[in-house]
Amino acid sequence: MRKEIADFLNTDLQFIKGVGPVLAERFNDVLDGRRVIDFLLHKPAYIRNRDIAESVAGVDAGATITIPLLIKSYKKPAKSAPWFKRTRAVRVLCADKMGYPVNIQFFNSKFLDYWLDKLPIGQWRMISGKIEAGNPPVINHPEFIEPMENVSKIPMAQVIYPAGEGLTQKLFTNVRDQIFTKLDSIISDYDDELTREFFDALHHVHFAKTSEDLLPNATHVAKLAYCELLAHQTAIAINRRNRTAPKNKKPKRIKKRDYLTKFWDTLPYSLTNAQNRVIKEIFADIDSEFPMMRLVQGDVGSGKTIVALIAALKMAESDGQTALLAPTDTLAQQHFTKIKPMCDNLGIVCDVLTGRDKGVARREKLTSLRSGRTKVIIGTHALFSDDVVYKDLGLVIVDEQHRFGVNQRESLRAKGNNVDLLALSATPIPRTLSMTMYGDMDISIINEKPAGRLPIRTTKLPISKTNDLIARIKQQVDNGAKVFWICPLVQDENGIGTAAAIARHEMLKQIFPTAGLVHGQMPKAERDKVMAEFADNDSDMSLLVATTVIEVGIDVPKASIIVIENAEQFGLAALHQLRGRVGRGKIQSFCILLYGFNISPDGLKRLDVLCETDDGFQIAEQDLMMRGVGELLGTKQSGWIQYHFADWREHRDLFKLAARAACDNDVSGWTRDLMYIFGCGDNISA
Question: Looking at 282-392, which runs of residues are DSSP E strands?
Fold first, then answer.
């Protein structure tokens, strides 16, 4: 890529006229970057039509209207009014060409003189904004106010961008126009056809005329989607090739101890065929001369933890150390509680390290790691802190791996010499999608559950049956059951009627006095304390009201009932994960999906899928088709690629084409430029 265009693409948005450092930081929050290229990759959401209307008659409330209005008079607070009244709305009384009255309102009197100067009494102005119901109708803070001779300044088809606080659409338009004015002048003398076509496609998307031009299969969007996919798939292909480069050979490990024989002899149950198959694949990777990069996918309760422990024992037989990275303190402690007794039985030192460890306790743990005495360490991101030094880190296990970005995983692997990486995921992902997203990893699937576990019985109920449900749950609790009650919100601040954990907890406490409450706004220590009390078989807490903070990270074998309120607001994958909080013991478990009055046909269909099957991979496939990859995986899952233009449901053929092209690509010229543009070159391992 020519230096001139590379320099411009890397220009900080604060240097664009009208932006500055404060707005540039607000752009950063929305674009996940503050460079020109970050703006260019920010796809508009839709086109807002501003066709001119002659009258407000027959225009629906909420519609955007562009209309000539005669300014008739002002109604503003008196200067002598108390300060608390001076902030009330300023009204400009107007009339359309047919004489129908219309009010324009401004709520910030600080700029009153500016607005009134643009609306002189007795003159016509072209006004564009959203019309609200009223008598007469109201336009609050019009987006455009122009003299009649300047009507051309109002875009009849306005590109609307996903925005954030303090970022207006006018600002987006201003930044867009300046960027493309400069960009077009740079590209105009380019003789590289691929470069010109790419930036021409960007131009068409940012200056789209209709919302149809922004759909996934629109010509220019599809072209950009293919470029994006090619860049990411090429980066993945390079990573895979680099894994077997001579410089990446790992030290040969020699078996010094025999932990596994004793482990097999004392294991009180048999592993499933799927677990044994995956263990063989992992052992082959550990014994190979190049680092392992393997993703193990397994449904909730399929036995991934025991497979991970066996991999750690294999590493310990050569005196190698294993670090198990968990996304939360709670999950780290849960793994530690399960794994430590088994390690103690074998004479292996197992410890846990989180951000809570301070002072002498932390120093002792770090000393044990540095000396090599600790063979298995379980923890959070604290495991790759600067002061954590390993004697011989051989294996990194990343649990719930999609919650960790590439850089975090690589920071931990860098603590050793060409370390093996084993990633675990309890979020079932359709195989075709996981191959695309994780093309640089080998994939193993545990598709069986341990014997003796009964399928969870799942039913759906309308919210009107809540009282009957509570009565039935009361009977079960009196017989010793533990119950999860899940709500989508902490509190219903907007009064939209969605189930809120705090309000539901207050209501249920009248029936279940010991009911606990956990949600994301609680201090973490307090939340963990409540969850630990609920998990304790000897505690009196029989019911726990929670938000999705319990989706991963709490194991309560005695819990046999989970109620998910407003279940229609969750995706299938999330519902399946929540359902997996029960059914972990030997008793029959139940999942009740409470749905609201306004559930859509698609919402009912999702709940029906969950009632009909407990196969996480089948559910994930359905969720992918109904909701798309962003909602299936969560828009903020840092370990996943967040595509700008590509859409899995609409661009499956492009994914395949890009994957094939990436395998044959020599990664020169334009492809490397694309990797630079889409920011995926930084994730390539040397």
Answer: 293-298, 321-325, 349-353, 374-379
